[in-house]
Design brief:
It contains 10 helices and no strands. The longest helix is centred in the C-terminal third of the chain and has 37 residues. The radius of gyration is 20 Å and the shape is globular.
């Protein structure tokens, strides 16, 4: 795919202006207009060139968010079934999204000065949600060990790099929320409520945005970039790594699939 120099230079200009934080509303609007018709493949190639020139991967997150806001038409994707690696990941995403909605509701209730009895009830519900979010680690592991390397093999390292950064950020925050719950008997209730609210909302916002980027940029990019004969190998690697306790029932291709 040939990238026009003007497109690359315009992206560089946008990134510089975003980093300067001057008149952000104007810059973001210009970015949306420019990015509206750029497909994931094109954007990822430009991102890769910018990374090779020394761009910090963290700076790509802002560009990614603006690109998503600019998308108005859903891209055509190859049809896949539930047994396809991407089909499995998307099915898990739906369950994770359902649970972060519950997390959002709990965080709101915890912050609304509820009584001690109701607060404890909310924390019990939160334990189940946090357990599921931590269980999603194998979802991230399959992406990092089986899917992302295939994209990188095709020369696309920008999007996987950004997703890895977000995975690690989310790991830290989810573990911090788990620690709060484990230690809640020793903590002041106001301190506990404030921190559960803050951490919970951070996880909700970041994870929801992360899933949207994977579903609308990284997965479509994978389907159109990774050779067809690689997908069975990816699926076999998924089976070996194992699945989440909440992964919808699937028939394993390998012999070492974790039971769900």
């Amino acid at each position: 795919m040939v990238i026009k120099v003007i497109g690359k230079e315009e992206l560089k200009k946008i990134l510089r202006e975003l980093k300067s934080e001057e008149d952000l509303a104007r810059v973001e609007e210009e970015a949306r207009l420019f990015l509206r018709n750029i497909d994931p493949e094109t954007l990822s190639i430009v991102e890769q060139e910018l990374l090779e020139e020394g761009l910090n991967p963290e700076d790509l997150r802002r560009l990614c968010e603006i690109h998503l806001k600019a998308i108005t038409i859903k891209r055509e994707e190859p049809e896949i079934g539930g047994e396809h690696p991407i089909g499995i990941l998307k099915a898990e995403h739906k369950i994770i999204l359902d649970n972060i909605k519950i997390l959002e509701e709990i965080a709101s209730k915890v912050k609304s000065n509820v009584g001690l009895e109701q607060l404890n009830e909310e924390f019990k519900k939160l334990e189940s949600v946090v357990a599921l979010l931590l269980e999603a680690e194998s979802h991230h592991q399959r992406e990092e060990e089986a899917l992302f390397p295939r994209l990188e093999k095709q020369g696309i390292t920008g999007p996987p790099s950004v997703m890895r950064i977000e995975h690690e950020d989310l790991r830290v925050k989810k573990k911090a929320l788990k620690r709060l719950l484990d230690e809640r008997a020793t903590l002041d209730h106001n301190y506990l409520a404030d921190n559960v609210y803050e951490l919970g909302n951070y996880i909700v916002s970041t994870l929801r945005d992360h899933i949207y980027k994977e579903d609308n940029i990284l997965y479509p990019l994978s389907l159109t970039t990774i050779p067809e004969n690689e997908w069975r190998k990816i699926r076999e690697e998924f089976d070996v790594i194992g699945y989440c306790c909440f992964t919808p029932g699937i028939k394993a291709l390998g012999e070492h699939r974790h039971e769900v």
